[in-house]
Amino acid sequence: MRSKTFPENLSQNKGLSIRIVSPEFGHVSPESAVQYGAAQRLPYYFFLFVLHGNSQEFIDGETIEVGKHELFFALPHQLRHLATTRHSADYYKLGFDDECLSRLPRKFPFLLNPLNQQKISFMPDAAHRLCTTFKTLNDLLRTADTDPDLILAYLNSLLTEINAAYFVMHKKQTTGNIDKFLGFKLFVEDHLTDQPTITEIAEKLALSTDCLYRIVKQHSGVSPKEFITDRLIIEARRRIYNNQLTSVKELAFELGFNDPGYFSRLFKKVTGKTIADFYQDLSL
Question: How far lies 244's CA from each of 77, 145, 170, 258, 279, in Å?
Fold first, then answer.
């Protein structure tokens, strides 16, 4: 069994680590909300589906506008900032952890975000099905002793619908290419601070460096080297937010950089700010 990462006091079911929120249900008390702070490194999967109106999500330093019939999702370890204003939307929010996901009968490739898009738009028919499933989960989670298998059945249906919509614009792409890109992303995640070379990654995936370049460029819009650099800077920003006392030298070494000066220059080149600027922003 996988370890639970969902905050125990947030779960709405005795047998599962899951919570749903809608305008009229599921909100945590102001006292409970304070303990999580304005920024949180997510320990679970998070979804926001907007039925009407619009909302904003702040993830890993980016602002994502979410409108009618659009769904935003965030993954464990991403840094999510809570909005300072209320939603002008009718919506459902859903959170569950990896242990809950492991109890479903299939895997969902979109949760690896191979296409680097965290917002999905739905056609009216699909949006209606999604809304119906969210509503059912909302009803089921009103009672803490609801049969977990019943909840999991609807969660599986929900994720199946989302997975199909995620890939619909890319259905002409070959499965092999997507699988290879997923393999690349997984390898980067597993060995991020080791900073493997592009040649080493290509060899592990049984690809030529040219082929790896084409696949990564096709699915992410950047080269393999740029992809890894961007991912390292995102990780640096997350660690700055989570541990404001870490020195630049310590942070550089944690991320696999032998030269803190080079790391500092790279950080500014990618973000447009120095690390000192980021620390200063946090202290305001």
Answer: 17, 41, 40, 21, 7
Q: How far apart are CA 275 and CA 236, in angstroms?
A: 9
- Scanning the structure block, which residue is given the tokens 């790391």? 263
Is residue 230 a contact partner of residue 270, using CB atoms and an 8 Å limit? Answer: yes
For the chain, domain boundaries: 8-170, 175-283
pLDDT, tens digit, 9 for 90 and up, residues 16-52: 999 999 999 998 776 666 565 667 788 899 999 999 9
Alpha carbons 22 and 14: distance in angstroms, whole number: 20
d(CA 251, CA 177): 34
Please provide residue 40's backbone torsions phi and psi, each rounded to the nearest 5 degrees: -140, 130
Determine the Cα–Cα distance for residues 57 and 203; give it in Å rounded to an integer.
38
Residue among 19, 39, 7, 2 at smallest CA distance from 241:
39
Cα–Cα distance, 246 to 109 (Å, whole number): 35
| Length of the chain as a residue count | 284
223 Cα distance to chain centroid? 21
Among 3.30.70, 2.60.120, 3.40.50, 1.25.40, name the CATH number for the domain at 8-170: 2.60.120
Name the token pair of 153: 């059945």
Report which of 108, 94, 114 is spatially closest to residue 21, judged by C-alpha positions.
Answer: 94
| C-beta separation of 82 from 59 below 8 A | no
Where the chain has pLDDT below 50, the residues are: 1-3, 172-174
Topology of domain 175-283, CATH? Arc Repressor Mutant, subunit A (1.10.10)
pLDDT tens track for 253-267: 999 999 999 999 999
> How far is residue 158 from each of residues 20, 58, 118, 138, 276, measured CA to CA in Å?
13, 23, 16, 12, 43
As a whole number of angstroms, the distance between CA 223 and CA 242 comes to: 29
